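PT: before anyone asks, these are the final sequences, not the draft ones from last week. 150 residues across everything. Please model them as a single complex and drop the result in this thread when it's through.
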Amino acid sequence: MANILIVNGPNLNLLGSREPGLYGSQTLSDIEEKLAVIAHARGHDIAFFQSNAEHEIVDRIHLAYQQLVAFIVLNPAAFTHTSIAIRDALLATRIPFIEVHLSNPHAREPFRRTSYFSDIARGVILGLGGLGYELALMAAMQMINESKPA
Ligand code: DQA
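LR: through. Structure below.
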């Protein structure tokens, strides 16, 4: 059993109504409910955090370190393209993470092509909508299992 944390950045609380052509019609709660079912079926604890404030995400990552969180699935949203502070929190705590984006930032405005996270992530999933979180969670659980001593 491991602790897994799902972190979502700014404006993702509006999923479902926010630009559905880009981000889909599922709400964040819809996505989180599916992830909880997947994690619990494999005996893992899962927690969810969404914030529109950069410092709250930094603080949540620090807390995750104290809680011995084994893996983070992170959609930093707009902070993807700006946040050295969240990057540094992940480097400081060394919690492995997968970066997820609902849309494909490379098919959008040029400023979205820069990520402060991709080079330090265990993996990156782009453009698959809510399915991307499920795939990231499956990969995280696989990596957790593989890292366990036999
Ligand atoms: C996003 C992509 C970001 O560029 C954007 O700022 C978001 C959502 C995505 O999931 O596609 O808020 O992270």
